[in-house]
């Protein structure tokens, strides 16, 4: 029998490969409730399953444990896993806490369009919806709103010297997130190297290890203007290496001197 425990053990063996870094663990206490909600024959039955009125509330200021966190801030997401009351309703919400000079790095949502409302600060957003479509940039003042169509690559950057806050609504209870740099550089090294031209597998190795976790620190210009020193950033959200995307044995990125925190201390140079 493929029991719940063997599923847990299997998930542990597979590490974080299956779980997107921005998603909460799949073994949350809400799991069995979400399962019951998904099996409920009617919306009325779902309301009955959510017997306590408190199950219809979610506090974005008090859910740091489920947040996607980096050196630049955090994204807190109320989705089917963290807020089961959305099950069956096709909606989710995120709140972005962007510290001064920080960025929600380029990503897509595989299952939802996002509408983003800017609460305070000024947030610059950028987006590309598909091949051949032009790049779109916005600068959102407090009260401003923009839209990121499902599947579009987009980012949000706070270039102010104060923290900024945004609220995003999604038309899916499970919008998902796919970080462009972390996922691309976690593909098979020969494919990544060939995609980038002729830089070679050696130059590719080490690139994914220096990508900072989301929310990341933003531009040098902002940091200088605001008098902020670029901190060391965690780099844990990279793609797990399995046999399919492992580096060929013998390949070492010797040109990449990295410190213990995984930050680059040297620019890459193409090995001869
Ligand atoms: C409803 O949930 C709240 C918060 O979790 C809890 O304090 C309260 O005891 C619950 N009420 C019932 C009737 O279960
Ligand atoms: C925006 O609101 C957050 C939360 O109250 C606060 O921490 C931050 O300083 C505010 N930023 C600005 C620019 O007012």
Bound molecules: 2-acetamido-2-deoxy-beta-D-glucopyranose
Tally of alpha and pi helices: 7
Numbering strands along the chain, what is their spatial order in the largest sheet?
1-2-3-10-5-8
**What is the 3D shape?**
globular
Radius of gyration: 20 Å
Report on the structure:
The protein has helices spanning 4-14, 31-39, 43-49, 180-184, 189-195, 201-204, 220-226; strands at residues 68-70, 73-78, 92-98, 102-108, 114-120, 123-128, 136-140, 145-148, 153-158, 164-170, 178-179, 216-217. Helices cover 18% and strands 23% of the residues. By secondary structure, it is an alpha+beta fold. The relative contact order is 0.15. The model is unreliable at 1-24 and 254-272 (pLDDT under 50). Strands 1-2-3-10-5-8 form a six-stranded antiparallel sheet, with no helix packed on it. Strands 4, 6, 7, 9, 11 and 12 form a six-stranded antiparallel sheet that branches. The structure holds 2-acetamido-2-deoxy-beta-D-glucopyranose (2 copies). Residues 120-121, 162-165 line the site of one 2-acetamido-2-deoxy-beta-D-glucopyranose.
What distinguishing features does this structure have?
single chain, 272 residues, alpha+beta, 6-stranded antiparallel β-sheet, 12 strands, 18% helix, globular, disordered N terminus, disordered C terminus, binds 2-acetamido-2-deoxy-beta-D-glucopyranose
């Amino acid at each position: 029998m493929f029991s719940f425990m063997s599923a847990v053990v299997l998930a542990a063996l597979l590490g974080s490969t299956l779980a997107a870094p921005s998603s909460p663990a799949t073994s949350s206490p809400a799991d069995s409730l979400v399962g019951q909600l998904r099996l409920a024959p009617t919306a009325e039955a779902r309301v009955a399953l959510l017997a306590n009125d408190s199950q219809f509330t979610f506090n974005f200021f008090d859910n740091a444990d489920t947040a996607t966190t980096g050196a630049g801030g955090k994204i807190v997401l109320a989705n089917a896993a963290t807020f089961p009351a959305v099950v069956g309703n096709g909606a989710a919400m995120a709140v972005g806490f962007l510290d001064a000079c920080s960025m929600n790095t380029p990503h897509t949502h595989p299952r939802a369009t996002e509408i983003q409302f800017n609460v305070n600060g000024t947030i610059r957003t950028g987006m590309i919806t598909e091949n051949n479509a032009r790049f779109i940039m916005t600068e959102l003042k407090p009260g401003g709103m923009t839209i990121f169509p499902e599947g579009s690559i987009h980012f949000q950057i706070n270039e102010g010297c104060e923290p900024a806050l945004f609220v995003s609504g999604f038309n899916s209870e499970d919008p998902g997130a796919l970080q462009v740099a972390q996922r691309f550089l976690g593909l098979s090294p020969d494919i990544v190297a060939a995609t980038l031209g002729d830089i070679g597998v050696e130059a590719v190795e080490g690139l994914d290890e220096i990508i900072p976790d989301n929310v990341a620190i933003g531009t040098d210009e902002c940091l200088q203007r605001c008098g902020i020193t670029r901190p060391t950033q965690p780099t844990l959200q990279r793609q797990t290496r399995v046999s399919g995307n492992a580096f060929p044995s013998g390949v070492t990125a010797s040109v990449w001197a990295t410190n213990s925190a995984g930050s680059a201390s040297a620019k890459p140079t193409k090995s001869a």
